[in-house]
Amino acid sequence: MAGNTWGRQFTVTSFGESHGPAIGCVVDGCPPGLALTESDLQTDLDRRRPGQSRYVTQRREPDQARILSGVFEGETTGTPIAVLIENEDQRSRDYGKIQQVFRPNHADYAYIQKYGRRDHRGGGRSSARETAVRVAAGAIARKYLRERLGIEIRGWLAQMGDIHLDCVAPDTVNDNPFFCPDPDRVAELEAAINVLRRDGDSIGARIVVEATGVPPGLGEPVFERLDSDLAAALMSINAVKGVEIGDGFDCVRQRGSEHRDELSPEGFLANHSGGVAGGISTGQPVRAALALKPTSSITIPGRTVDIAGEATEMRTTGRHDPCVGLRATPIAEAMLALVLMDHWLRHRAQNADVTPPLSPIPGDL
Amino acid sequence: MAGNTWGRQFTVTSFGESHGPAIGCVVDGCPPGLALTESDLQTDLDRRRPGQSRYVTQRREPDQARILSGVFEGETTGTPIAVLIENEDQRSRDYGKIQQVFRPNHADYAYIQKYGRRDHRGGGRSSARETAVRVAAGAIARKYLRERLGIEIRGWLAQMGDIHLDCVAPDTVNDNPFFCPDPDRVAELEAAINVLRRDGDSIGARIVVEATGVPPGLGEPVFERLDSDLAAALMSINAVKGVEIGDGFDCVRQRGSEHRDELSPEGFLANHSGGVAGGISTGQPVRAALALKPTSSITIPGRTVDIAGEATEMRTTGRHDPCVGLRATPIAEAMLALVLMDHWLRHRAQNADVTPPLSPIPGDL
Amino acid sequence: MAGNTWGRQFTVTSFGESHGPAIGCVVDGCPPGLALTESDLQTDLDRRRPGQSRYVTQRREPDQARILSGVFEGETTGTPIAVLIENEDQRSRDYGKIQQVFRPNHADYAYIQKYGRRDHRGGGRSSARETAVRVAAGAIARKYLRERLGIEIRGWLAQMGDIHLDCVAPDTVNDNPFFCPDPDRVAELEAAINVLRRDGDSIGARIVVEATGVPPGLGEPVFERLDSDLAAALMSINAVKGVEIGDGFDCVRQRGSEHRDELSPEGFLANHSGGVAGGISTGQPVRAALALKPTSSITIPGRTVDIAGEATEMRTTGRHDPCVGLRATPIAEAMLALVLMDHWLRHRAQNADVTPPLSPIPGDL
Amino acid sequence: MAGNTWGRQFTVTSFGESHGPAIGCVVDGCPPGLALTESDLQTDLDRRRPGQSRYVTQRREPDQARILSGVFEGETTGTPIAVLIENEDQRSRDYGKIQQVFRPNHADYAYIQKYGRRDHRGGGRSSARETAVRVAAGAIARKYLRERLGIEIRGWLAQMGDIHLDCVAPDTVNDNPFFCPDPDRVAELEAAINVLRRDGDSIGARIVVEATGVPPGLGEPVFERLDSDLAAALMSINAVKGVEIGDGFDCVRQRGSEHRDELSPEGFLANHSGGVAGGISTGQPVRAALALKPTSSITIPGRTVDIAGEATEMRTTGRHDPCVGLRATPIAEAMLALVLMDHWLRHRAQNADVTPPLSPIPGDL
């Protein structure tokens, strides 16, 4: 496949370019009978939407999702759900420079080498705009998981540059444009962004996502493990360069006696594993982290080549984010929702008639 | 799918339990005309094989791979290549304890919750023994990539606990049982393992893998990106908890002006990106890192529950590795080879008749 | 998967209900550089379009396809091509009867049993309206096959009821509303349809499709053979109940000495096999036939049950075809185009570097 | 994919050449807890096995299936089930002629054009020997379907040449080497085969397969319909050239008032549709027919070309079947079992929590 369909049982087929007429997706495999309206998608779309604060890109898109199929009288029917988001704020401007020159560390050069051409307008298919459809599709999964299984998903900004953030007030994450889980640190983030703006530079970020209420048994060893599919899903988000499950790279320095999550009848005694063992969910909270690189769309000039292969210099202008990671939280939550949804359906395909010899033990003590 | 087939164009279907009669795989989609014998698989299998040094598990398996199909008169025919590895050293012993009690942080509990039962002998399907077939399959991909495309793959131990290792002598990696790339530090590793043995404990590790000579254009955005599929492939290896592409989590603290890989007609001026942009290979070396947790099979007793849900204690005995990461290098190399092979074939499916407007620029200056 | 994505390398994801806001599809995997405009899709869409003659359903849909992505400056870019067709003539009427009662031999009852509900308006997802998007997607494949490989695809009505038609004038097929390949027999078909109209009844049809210029080598034994995938593709068209490759069911009475296609350096000496051997194309014309059942939407009352499980009677009113097979020719051509396109790309994924020991012999003497 | 994995949720990956060391398959996705031994596979394997009567090929293979994985203490565990069948009667002989000359209507020429080479020994991968693994895999599906869902599958020879056979005594089908459902006609078949033997010629056959007890709801419209997947599965059997569901090509001459299966609360009043509507099972018996061509391995010489492209003549010698269709019944039954099994699991993935508004009505009155 050419890579634009995600999932195996709950699938998302994504299409659209940043400055084409529309982006959208087709969600296939959703169980019938889920109450669903366009406003269910809009909540998460609005959280991801650009132009909402002065700390992110100023492109203004209403990002109104329209459901074209698969819903009848307010409920899913089991047939494919097509979602369409029109592009509205495609500023008509001169793309001459971007068209001829490869922006360093962008997908421009790779697309040309792969396809021999590219839609250069606003990044075309490689634009982060594509992630809006993931958020829309993820909202469907998220609603099902919450209503049918009691699974709750949340994410937050855990680090931006040298600023480390603890999740001290998870309920406040949506109250600030950074998805910062510590209200006392928001001013610090604002100041850091202002410095980057002034310097014409950018910075990386680390996001944490977590799902609670996940039943044990999700994941298909040996290749389509829950953690494996989650790693792929998170790595497929623009700018992501690293993924961790549970303690992640901290494991390298841990001893087994420290790392192993002991069990008791009352619940797991720790969660270093991030809720996955042998590629299968354990019932503990599923927790992952992702690293996003600093965007390369900065105003500091950089060396590059043009389409003739000649050396030149590039300085990105236009609307961009000093920290693309700031908008990644709802996208990462959406991908986690999609992974859990797909695995829930696949798990019951094979194992719907299984009764384990013991009841699940609680994920947390 | 139930998760035991990897890949889309070059596929590997894996089967077998640790203490069953055999493990093996079927490799489908290999181009015809590749010279291939069983000894081509054996080189890498021998590198992964247990029982070769006193620093790893003492299970002794010859790991002789037998090719059952798909090769005729010394060349691949384009039909599926079945590889069989008989299990020989399945020690006949009392599994009573393991059968009734869940080892903390093993897949035991998750398997029971998913399937309602499990083959408890030696870890059954969740045993690291399964990775032998990945090495065999990877050896086929690796041979093709080397002979047809000039791609070279190598890996090394980059960290064990607090011991950080630089790749100062890549040619010596296979000369020691740790895949240590610095011969002067081997004694240090030996000493650390001896301490762990004495303590009955274990430690994590970090492995780096790299492919040079990768042509630009591999990877299928937006979901089946090269980095995304590589993350999944590496995360599917037993005990892996984190994956990085290029600078990985270091990106969080980097500025865009530092991170971006500038280009010149003579070549890329840096490789922070790990050879992937927008999910597509750039021609730079493809570089990834993985974190392996400390094995939970340690002799220090741990709290757990039994199959009746009652609290109990577990102390693993038998043959195990103080650092499972020590044997992971050939497995990670194999998974990298499989990912590149699959993406090469898929890339040419869609783009075989593309001529980019400029020649690829070198991956390194 | 839930079944709305077709293909493996060249994929079509279909969505939409008969009386929803729109139908459409996403075509993924198209090679870049193919000149493509909306009018390229329109030619075939217009051939399938209802309401064009008084012999088929009188629903009037302009069936204007809009391309939303994947085409830039008149050429495909290699990214997914979304095609949207708005529904316009959704007559607002009382669906009360259809909603409560299962039309015999329609999908109504099966949908209820599967999904527990259905969009009853105009057949919902099970309507033949869905085939419009197949024709649009097929037009893209067809253009590529013609321009890059010289493959020509055509189809015709071979039988309607007891009227058998020979392909005596293939160039006249598009000159009449029946896709009849014999202009002298058109009046006979008209008369037969008029009788059916009068009787409120319907009739079956047999369609033949053929592709010339197909290179040898397409098809992936043992399960994804060219004939196997073609059988699935044709059987997936609404109302199709039988598929034949080459001589099909006539083979049952043939002897091997008659059936086998002998070869000569100048070309194959016959084509009983329909251009496929061992599941792989031979270079002969690929030929298939399909049987379409008489539509069950007739005005003669029939016994059935209602949603409460009670016995009742049903008489279909509204706009319907006395012979649904009459509009199937462009759909069958489209499916043949899709199968060949997908297999061409998959074939070159594995075998792009193969040089057979002898040149292909011509498909026809 | 290269075509050797069948299915989506219940998958079969097949490997092996006719005269290589072994053939086999990996069955993935089987629900855990199914009682399974090698003898469960052997019953159907013995029905397909050659050399059992003088009316079929005299190759003598014990076809002993060995289960290598996925079964523990007599029950499936949910992990992949590998099945191995060693080749024993590979007569050592001179393949010089077959190696250099393409047998008319065999896969020889197509394989060379596709892969540039082929394993010519006994037909290699294109040999009907490969179907033994389908029968083994099908036996697993069949056991599950019978024990868990009460589905019974049977097949019979419906026609050989001009001899039409009615299913008058279904219980006697296994009592004769032809799978003839009418004991009074067995002598007629014997005589016909003797004539073909004498003439050195061959004949085609028509097989019917049927499953009773199939619940409504199986099948995934619009592309992976039950009938569509069944058509592909049956067409993938060697020598098959046509597939019908229900009345098949007879529909062409039927009127809608005759064809449509009316419903009553007591059950369906007919089964022209073969148990499928809109691509979904209705609860009626699922019935299909397949046409097998006369084998081209006959002793009457035929014109052909050699590997240099020169004209020559070919006369097949060795062990072959005058009617390959005679051994196809268990293979067709196996494919039907696989299709139903895969669709059952997929159906419940999406729809496990659906409750239809009415109880299923019986499939037959």
Gap between N and C termini of chain A, in Å?
44 Å
Please indicate the count of domains of chain A.
1
Poorly predicted ranges of chain A: none
Instruction: Give the number of DSSP strands of chain A.
Output: 18
Specify Rg of chain A, calculated over alpha carbons: 21 Å
Kindly report the name of the CATH homologous superfamily of chain A: Chorismate synthase AroC
* Estimated structural class of chain A: alpha+beta
CATH topology of chain A: Chorismate synthase, AroC fold
Spatial order of strands in the largest sheet of chain A: 1-2-3-7-4
- The geometry of chain A reads as globular
User: Mean pLDDT of chain A, as a whole number?
Assistant: 94
Based on the structure given, which CATH architecture of chain A is correct?
A: 4-Layer Sandwich
Top-tier CATH class of chain A? Alpha Beta
How many separate helices of chain A?
8
Of all chain pairs, the largest interface belongs to:
A-B, 124 and 123 residues
EC number (chains A, B, C, D): 4.2.3.5
Enzyme class (chains A, B, C, D): lyase
InterPro entries (chains A, B, C, D): Chorismate_synth, Chorismate_synth_AroC_sf, Chorismate_synthase_CS
Cofactor (chains A, B, C, D): FMNH2
